[in-house]
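name: query_chain
kind: protein
chains: 1
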Amino acid sequence: MEKIKENTTFKEGDVVVYGSQGICRITGTEKMRVGGKSTVYFILNPVYRKNSKIFVPSDNEKLMEKMHSVIEKDEIDELIRNAAEDTSEWIENDAERKDFFKSALASGDRGKIINVIKTIRLHKTEREESGKRLHQSDEAFLKEAEALIYEEFAVVLGIEPVKVLDYIMDEISKL
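structure:
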């Protein structure tokens, strides 16, 4: 008889980041039989997408690696300080830029995702000053990156996601 692996790192009520799904609350676990095999699944409810439910098999290492705890406030402040010091350059080649942004978002690395936000926002400002608009694909990457970061920061800081940019700008002005 096969032993069922249970991940004890996470528990019901925890708020986690789950890959590109963003901030989720673990609402429980459920033992399900799929393909003749019994597995314990974590049940995740995205915090900002109320009608969604995600089932993550606790014995699937690849999927479990996408789930991690939200960061602490001091880590947010450090990320902001690092972003303020970062000197990112715009990648002119569309295909290379898309690959870079896609890779950064898929990595889940908050520093890289903030770098994407900063880089696109700076380029967007330059484009607007010359009467041009941001490319649609860059706008989509910006929206996705901001959702990932702003949702997590909002939960940690106890503010609405739309207030996160103001918080970041206030913190940068203090540096």
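note: The two ends are 59 Å apart (CA to CA).
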